Structure formats: C-alpha cells, structure tokens
Amino acid sequence: MNILKKIKSIQFLVCIAFLFIFISPTQALFVSPPKDPIPLIKQIFPTATHIGEKSGNVPIWSIEKNEQIIGYAFETNDLAKIPAYSGEPVNMLVAISPEGVYLGAKVLEHHEPIILAGIPESKLYAFADQYDGLNVSDRLKVGGNNKEGVIHIDGLSGATVTVMVMNVAITKAATQVARSLGIIKASQEIIQPMSTIHPGVYQKADWQTLVGDGSIRKLTLNRNTVDEAFVGTEVEHIDEATPEQKQDMFAEIYFAQADIPSVGRNLLGESEYRWLMSTLKEGEHAIALLGNGYSYKGSGYVRGGIFDRIQILQNGEAFAFRDLDHNRVSDILINGAPRFQEMSLFIVRAQHEFNPGVDWQLELLVRRQLGAVDSLFTSFKGDYHTLDKYVERPPLIYPEPELTLTQEVWQEKNTEVIILAVLLLTLLATLFFQDVLVRHPTFLHNFRHSFLVVTVVFIGWSWGGQLSIVNVFTFLQAFMSDFSWDLFLLDPVIFILWGAAAATILLWGRAVYCGWLCPFGALQELINVVARHVKIPQVELPWAVHERLWAIKYLILLALFGLSLDSLALAEQFAEIEPFKTTFLLKFDREWPFIIYALLLLLINVFSRKFFCRYLCPLGAALSTGNSIRLFDWLKRRPECGQPCKTCAKECEIQAIHPDGTINMRECHYCLDCQITYFNDEKCPPLKKMARKKQKFKEQQIQTVEVT
Predict the structure, then answer these.
(1) What SUPFAM superfamilies does this protein's entry cite (predicted)?
(2) Beta carbons of 494 and 409 less than 8 angstroms apart
C-alpha cells in the first residue's frame, strides 16, 4: 500500500508540473511575426526628411535630411541569407552612416522558437544593439578568446548558434553595402612584402639599352589622344587640334627609379649618383622624370609648392610631390639620350611606404581651362615594373582564405572537439573490452561514475551538448526540404554526439548514448547513486505497472512528431517536456515553472533511478526505434537467467530485464552491472552452483595409490 501511495504522489506532482508549463499564460505559444522596416528606419533616423525606395543591385534605402544623405539601411536577407538554428535565416534591418558606422541593427523576423521557449526576445534585441557605434571595416566576432584586430561581441547563452549566424549575416551584408557605396575598398588578395634594391648590381649601358629592357619607361601622348579624352565635356573644343595637328606630340615623359644603380649611375654619372644616395634616408626612393611637350611641372608648385600635374599610384594609394621633394637635373650623362625640356628627380618619402618590388604608375593630369577660374582634368597613366635583376622580392604572402561560418565555429570549438573525441574513444575501448573490465567491479564502477561526472560537467553544462528530440524533428524537416549539412555542422559538439549516437545505435542500440553520453541521464544516475549511498529508500514499481509506463514516452514521441509535421515551432514548444534546456543550456536561469519541473524530475530520481528516462523521454523513445537494426548483442545471458535465477533482474536499477531473464535493449542503459554479476562466481547463482558441483566432484574422487 505504501508503494502505491508513493506512485500516486509522484504521478500527481508530474501532472502539476505539466500544468505549470503548458497552461501558464506567461509562456503562450508564439512565433515572431515579420516587422515593417520603415517605422524602424524612422526610429533609427528621427531627423530624416525623406526615405528613398529600396533599390539597386545591392538593395538599400537611402535616408536623407534636407536632401543630404545621412545614412543607409538594408535587410540582411537581401544580401546574406544564412540559415540559423531553426533552418531559417534571421532577417535584420541594419543601418549605417555614410562613413560606415553602424547606427542600428533591428530584428525584423526570425523562426527561432528554441529562443522564445526559454529566452525573452529582449535579449535577442539587446544582442543586436551591440553593433551601434562599430564600423563596417571592423572584424567582429561573437565570444571567443581575445585576438589582435578583432572586436568581440557578447554572445547569448542558450542561443550561441543563432547569434553567430546573426553576426555573420550583419557583417557580410554591411561589407557588401559599404563596398558598393565606396565606403571601404576590397581587401588586397596578395601581399608583396617590402622589396630591397640590390646595391651591387650595376651594368654599364646606353640610353637605348635601358629603354629597350624596360629600365626606363615612356608615356607618350599625341594631341588626338588628348582631344578624345575630353569628348563630351564642356571643354571638348577648347585647345582642340586641327586635323593636321592630330598626330603631333602633346607630351613625352620618360620615367625610371633612379636609386637603382644601373639606372641612376648611367643617367646621372658616378658623382651625382653618390650625392643622390647620400641624401636618401631609410625607406626613401628617387624617381627620375624627363619630359618634352606638356610640362609635368605646371605652375602649381610655384604658387603652392605642390606638383599638381603628376602623382604616383601604387597598391591603390596615390601620392603627389611637393617642392621639397624636387631636385632639378641640369644634365644627364648617358650615351644616346635625346634632349629634354624638363629633367627632375623626385624623392619618395618613407611615409608613403613605396615598395620598389611592386608595380607602380606615373599619372599625368592634363587640364583645360573653362573660363577664368574653372577647369576640367583628365589623366593618363604609364606603368613601371622594376626588373627582377634589380630587386630582391620576398615570397608573396597569400592571405588566409576567409573561413565559412561552419569552419569558424569548428575552429573556435577545437578544444571541445578534441576532448570529446578522446572521451568517445575511451568509451569505445570500454565497450570493446567490457568482458575484461567487468571482472574488476570496483574499478569499473569508479570509472563509470567518473565518466558520468565528465558527461554532466563538460558535455552538459560547459558545452551545452545535450541532444534533444527537437534535433530529430529539425533533421527530418531539413531532409524533406532543401537539406544542407551546414545547418547541423554549426554546433560541433551536438554534431559529434549525434554521430556517436547514430554509430552506437547501429552497433549496440540506444543503450550506449542513454547510459553514458546523455548529460541529463548521467545527472539523474549520479544523484540516485548518492541517494542509495546514504540509504534513501527506493521505490520499485511492480513489473506490470513498470512495463506499461514504458509506453508513455512513445506516446509523447508520436504526439510531438505529429505536431512537427504541422508546425516545428509548435512541436518545439511542447518539447519542453524535456528538461534539458532548463538544466544545461540555460542552467536554471529562466521562468520558475520550468525550474520547478526540472527540479521535480531530479527529486523523483532520488527515490527511483532515471524516472524521466524510463517513462517520459521522447528522445530515448526515438533512439530506441533503431534497436532492431543493431549489429551486436554483447550482453551475455545463460539458460538459467530468469528460470530459475532472478538475481540480475532484481539488481537492474532501471528494470530493463524481464522476469524471464531477457534484456530489453530498448530500455537498457548499458551500465554493465548485469555483466559484473554474470562473471562473478561468488554472486551469480549458476556459477556458484557449477562451483559447488566441481568441488563436490573433487571430494568424491578416489586418489590413485601406486603399488610398488
């Protein structure tokens, strides 16, 4: 009678917990509806006078104040549609300033019911608020260790994958927008480290030789080329050449790097070259310009000290020269050189970080006057490539390819992956050598309990590696639609555990995962071990009751599966019958009905081992459906097991052994206690009986006496 009263009390408490969770008005079923972006744009830009239509190859809204652009807004789904935990992307409105500063990030729509069930949406919005004031050129990362050049954003406990996907979507979309608007430049693909000029490489040469091998380059323009450059402008016919003048030379400029010995010494002579090199400071270089026709000097350097007709281009950077960088060349000594109207040496200062091993360009600006003040410019460029024999070029640096989100997550979780792999290999070795280990009961019990502690502390609380029936439904839904492994690879620990669960189900059935790798199952078992150690009375249900209660978890599984076919979000809400999220993902930091429910299940476990696993767990029910395909049956039994011996059945603390002695592998948790008894000749009745027979046979033997 006392047992039946305890059973009814337990069932009553479980029902009350269900009512708290599924009827509580504070946790009504809810899916985030899409929001209109325009009110949010007005909220971010309260002084805006006009919001343009979303348009362009990179779709954006332009926001203006009194006809002046004050910012841009865009949706991440238009530019970086990345699936989140639910398999659907989180669509966000992002606003940036014309300078590339984040002004706001707002969640427009998401399908993350796993968040809504345990984390208020306000935390998701607070995560997005962290982008305010950051720059699109910043390298942003959610959580992780500090690294140089990376700005870290606080994550969201229980929704790590979701916020990592949000971060990638925001930064990728913002980068595309900023590049399309010219706010930031595309990153350089290959880097040439700073090269050095060979100081001792010199060969006597004439003008024609240096021009012929490219040591000296030439930019030549005729008047027709210049006229064509101004076609369609307001100055098209100003200073236009007559048909007879079209082929006349407009400008002819020779240019070279004068601090290269074979160039500078041949052009300037020994004494002038030595003087030049003595004036150059570390990191400085000299460029020689020799010109006829249109002056490359102009008059700007006279008025303002700037040579406004020429500049040097390298690696996307441009720099001009001032009068302090200029030295006039009175004569060149190389044989065969033509006469020039202008001859100059320009010093490239160290702050420009000019690299003699990287190609550069001389840009000549040609101006035509439009009235007394205004003028229009066009430019012409000449390329220069330093010959290999003149410079020492270090090997090119190829930047590391940009990691995908999946690769980034796995790299971040590298330590967890390695430790988990070691744990799984250890478990695999335990299973393969179980017949040896069970002969050492004390060691095996201590080892198992230590393994369960690691499962709870590391896999459960530290890594959030608790599998859920929601994972099963997500996989099935993805399999029936556009399946992609990326969704499942976003959480390495969960992915590896699912792989381990699948492999062990194929080899040994559900038992291995539920008995060794499930954090909540391990927590229950450890609590019950302590309870038994302090002699707390245990409730053992009659076999007839116990056997029928098994069916509850299969009914729960069928109900959740039916809901998932209609709405995965709804199924995830009712999947809260699993206390996993409360216990491990949120660490009891959520609404009190969920906490009471989880604590209630753990309290029941003090009196009855693994109550939730045995009767309520839909995940265990789902895993047990694969039991029929398991390949191995390594739990040994004897003909006497069950008839007449009941030892193992009575000792099985989760009652997975039928009265007839057979082990129900759909309910077994592979604790190996029955195998310890199986090989213990002091505990197993059939072994004890065999031992007595052997002893009796020895006693009845008549010793043979030799007759001499």
Answers:
(1) 4Fe-4S ferredoxins
(2) no
Q: Do 175 and 184 form a contact (C-beta atoms < 8 A)?
A: yes
CA 117, CA 119: separation in Å to the nearest integer? 6
User: Do the beta carbons of residue 239 and residue 368 sit within 8 Å?
Assistant: yes
In the DSSP assignment, the letter for residue 119 is S
H or E element at residue 222: strand 217-222
Detail the DSSP E strand segments found in 351-503.
Answer: 360-370, 374-384, 391-392
- Phi, psi for residue 391 in degrees, rounded to 5: -130, 155
Report the C-alpha gap between 205 and 525 in whole angstroms: 89
What whole-number distance in Å separates Cα of residue 164 and Cα of residue 171?
11
SS (H, E, C) 571-592: HHHHHHHCCHHHHHHCCCCCCH
Other beta carbons within 10 Å of 84: 23
Q: What is the mean pLDDT of residues 542-546?
A: 89
Judge whether 513 and 505 are in contact, CB under 8 Å.
yes
B/e letters for 458-474, b = 16+ CB within 10 Å, e = fewer, are bbbbebbbbbbbbbbbb
DSSP conformation letters of 624-683: HTTGGG-----S---TTBTTTB-HHHHH-TT--B-TTS-B-TTT-----HHHHHHT-TTT
Per-residue model confidence as pLDDT tens digits over 180-192: 898 887 655 678 8
Residue 41 one-letter amino acid? I
Q: Which two tokens stand for residue 6?
A: 């305890």
Task: Give the pLDDT confidence of 38-49 residue by residue, as tens digits.
Answer: 999 999 999 999
CB 257 within 8 A of CB 263: yes
**3-state DSSP call for residue 253?**
strand
- In angstroms, rounded to a whole number, what is the distance separating the alpha carbons of residues 483 and 674? 42
Q: Which residues, 6 or more positions from 254, have their beta carbon under 8 angstroms from its beta carbon? A: 211, 216, 217, 218, 288, 289, 290, 291, 340
Share of the chain above pLDDT 70, in %: 86
Cβ burial, residue 313 (10 Å; 0-12/13-18/19+): middle
Q: Kindly report each contact of residues 300-304 with a partner whose C-beta sits within 8 Å and lies 24 or more positions away, as own/partner.
A: 301/326
Tell me if 438 sits within 8 A of 678, measured CB to CB: yes
Q: What sign for the dihedral angle of Cα 409, 504, 478, 156? A: negative
Cβ–Cβ contacts within 10 Å for residue 178, how many?
20
Cβ atoms of 316 and 359 closer than 8 Å: no
pLDDT greater than 70 at residue 539: yes
Give the integer Cα–Cα distance in Å for 421 and 87: 27
Q: How many CA atoms lie within 13 A of 446 on its CB side?
A: 4
Neighbours of 689 (CB within 10 A): 12
Six-digit token pair at 67? 């006809």
Angle, helix 441-454 to helix 519-533, in steps of 10 degrees? 130
Residue pointed to by tokens 């190389």 = 334
Q: Which of 25-29, 140-144, 416-420 has the lowest mean pLDDT?
A: 25-29
Q: How far apart are CA 302 and CA 486, in angstroms?
A: 64
- CA distance linking residue 103 with residue 40, whole number of Å: 12
Query: What CA–CA distance (Å, rounded) separates 383 from 217?
Result: 8
